[in-house]
Design brief:
about 350 residues, translocase, 11 helices, Rossmann fold, alpha/beta, cell inner membrane, nucleotide-binding, ATP binding, 4-stranded antiparallel sheet
Length: about 350
């Protein structure tokens, strides 16, 4: 279970009206997304491939691929505006106040250097520790990450370690600068069930011990249920539902969230190959007048296609982008998620 979040007024990250274009600016893939992450809080982003969740996270990190750009909106991190931040300022921010872990840890490590050397170098460059002190701190950090025989691990190369061990090494590097925010983009996807659970437990412990805020991206609702206080549901470049994780999973208010729950493995860690939702998302950049989910939705009505659908607050900390949300809730459409283990 995730730890309780902090108070509403303690925002660390604020994303407001962000739009992201790809293809050299020709195609808009993220359409005016807004959310916040509070200090010490874990917020999860879920959605199908192509929903815009990774584009948003890479916008937060300032590492969008060439041809991609934030075209509108603001991203504020503890009073610092991140959109258009100069490279030198990013170098001071990344690895110290903001860090990240991604799906394939081996691709972010130098295969020709021991993992201990790479962590010690991070401690020297980003934290300013002397060489000998950095080595001692690196071994201690490997131990804190749950790596057995940390002194031996220090001298090993990436190819000598398992996937789970590599992810712990990358986590050690990510938290070595005592960041306030960790962005975890599909960080457990490539791991088997047992190792995945161990890494999620480690992330929870890092939150408790370090006051770390986490922005976690996953296509897997079971991961979000285990780790996150709040969940943001993305569909076709829009935020369609948000709220406390337990509430959203127990009683979804958007038909897409309900569909995700119907095919997901929440509460069943032995079923790690989720089913799929019928139909396909609209092409990236498609101009759609109304609800972007309408063509796949069992509850679609004429008013769903008549005009833009705003994200509407339904209750404190709950919002949904659906003109029929109150009717669907009353009809019991969200009962699929009830009783799911979170």
């Amino acid at each position: 279970m995730p730890e309780p979040g902090t108070g509403r007024g303690d925002q660390l990250l604020t994303v407001d009206g962000v739009r992201v274009a790809i293809g050299g600016g020709r195609t808009e893939a993220v359409h005016g997304v807004s959310f916040e992450v509070r200090r010490g809080e874990a917020v999860g982003i879920v959605g199908e491939s192509g929903s815009g969740k990774t584009l948003v996270c890479r916008s937060v990190l300032g590492v969008l691929a060439p041809g991609c750009a934030v075209t509108a909106g603001t991203i504020d991190f503890a009073g610092t505006s991140l959109v258009g931040l100069p490279r030198r300022a990013w170098e001071q921010l990344r690895g110290t106040r903001i860090s990240a872990v991604f799906q394939d840890p081996a691709s972010y490590l130098n295969p020709s250097q021991t993992v201990g050397h790479q962590l010690a170098e991070q401690l020297r460059v980003k934290v300013g520790k002397p060489r000998r002190e950095a080595r001692t701190a690196a071994v201690a950090l490997f131990d804190a990450m749950g790596l057995h025989e940390p002194e031996r691990v220090y001298h090993q190369y990436p190819h000598e370690l398992s996937g789970g061990m590599l992810q712990r090494v990358v986590l050690a590097i990510a938290v070595s600068g005592e960041p306030e925010l960790l962005v975890a983009d599909e960080a457990t996807t490539a791991l088997d069930v047992t190792i995945q659970a161990e890494v999620l437990e480690l992330l929870g412990r890092l939150r408790r011990e370090r006051g770390l805020a986490v922005l976690a991206v996953s296509h897997d609702l079971a991961v979000i249920a285990e780790l996150c206080d709040r969940v943001l549901v993305f569909y076709a470049g829009e935020l369609v539902e948000t709220g406390p994780t337990a509430e959203v999973l127990d009683s979804p208010r958007h038909p897409y969230t309900e569909a995700l729950l119907r095919v997901a493995s929440v509460g069943d860690w032995d079923r790690r190959t989720p089913d799929v939702i019928d139909g396909e998302p609209p092409p990236v950049g498609a101009e759609i007048r109304g609800c972007r989910f309408a063509d796949r939705c069992d509850f679609a009505a004429p008013q769903c296609r008549s005009g833009p659908v705003p994200l509407t607050e339904q209750a404190p900390d709950r919002a949904v982008r659906c003109v029929r949300a109150s009717e669907i809730a009353l009809s019991g459409a969200g009962a699929i998620g009830a009783g799911a283990a979170v």
